[in-house]
């Protein structure tokens, strides 16, 4: 008997590959091999009788048919996920929230606070989806709430500033002493640890202090702030990071702040809520709880030396 529609497995493989523009990343997300993704997409193309992808300069692009199917597949999969979670919850209303959070922020700030949330709201399940700073999270229909690092402008989302504009220059005590970093004029001699997604942070910091940018010793680039923090602890250089990520290392004096950074950065962490989900009770409960914490004040208290 001829099947009357594609299988869920085929649609999941196609949706993930289209969202990531990569069979490899889709395979990693779905915990299967790249070959399995390729076969599922090929089966889907055979069933539909038309190509869904084309390759151009080693890039995976959607055809017109692929773009149409992606929109429909994401909506269909979202409906199935919502229905499944509704049944699993055993309640008359949705009791889960799907969240995308940068791993460094989750580890250093959010996770310690979630104990209180679960104590207050034991029936709400939080599902943490893999976070990719470069991904278009608006295209991922499964995400209800995202914490994004940026300037706060994301279409179709309600965004509210959380924390992160307050910066800190940090390094190990030994590195600060060796380089004489209590004197700001010595910073051009230090190795400056950089973040890929904030490439001009040190340049702006130097300009604020009227230091010659041309003499800055720009060191290695990292894709996550936790890597910069780890490198700073090991004495590899000095990092410019959101203060909210280094409260505990500053408190224990594993890291120190050799000079103050009073000015606020343009970018920070924003809580982004999909507009059409903002009135879902579980989503609004989590959002209201997180916004009520006054994270900047919490960070200030936690970063004081013990």
3D structure, described in words:
This protein has 306 residues and is of the alpha/beta class. The chain folds into three domains: 8-89, Winged helix-like DNA-binding domain superfamily/Winged helix DNA-binding domain (Arc Repressor Mutant, subunit A); 96-164 and 267-300, Periplasmic binding protein-like II (D-Maltodextrin-Binding Protein, domain 2, 3-Layer(aba) Sandwich); 167-252, 3-Layer(aba) Sandwich (D-Maltodextrin-Binding Protein, domain 2), CATH 3.40.190.10. Helix content is 42%, strand content 19%. It has eleven helices and eleven strands. The strands form three sheets. A five-stranded mixed sheet has the order 4-3-5-11-6. A four-stranded mixed sheet has the order 7-10-8-9, with helices on one face. A two-stranded antiparallel sheet has the order 1-2. Helix 7 links the parallel strand 8 and strand 9. Helix 1 (8-20) crosses helix 3 (34-48), helix 1 (8-20) crosses helix 4 and helix 2 crosses helix 3 (34-48). The radius of gyration is 23 Å and the shape is globular. This is DNA-binding transcriptional LysR family regulator.
Q: What is the CATH C-level name of the largest domain? A: Alpha Beta
Uncertain runs are none
- CATH homologous superfamily designation of the largest domain: Periplasmic binding protein-like II
CATH structural architecture of the largest domain: 3-Layer(aba) Sandwich
Count of DSSP strands: 11
> Roughly what percent helix?
40-55%
- Within the CATH hierarchy, at the fold level, what is the topology of the largest domain? D-Maltodextrin-Binding Protein, domain 2
Largest sheet: 5 strands, mixed
Spatially, the strands of the biggest sheet line up as: 4-3-5-11-6
What general form does the structure show? globular
Q: What does the radius of gyration come to?
A: 23 Å
> What is the average per-residue confidence, as pLDDT, rounded to a whole number?
86
Supply the helix-strand structural class.
Answer: alpha/beta
- Total domains, how many? 3
Determine the number of helices (DSSP H or I, runs of at least 4 residues).
11
Q: How much strand content do the residues show?
A: 15-25%
What string gives the helices and strands in order? Answer: HHHEEHEHEEEEHEHEHEHEHH
Distance between the termini: 71 Å
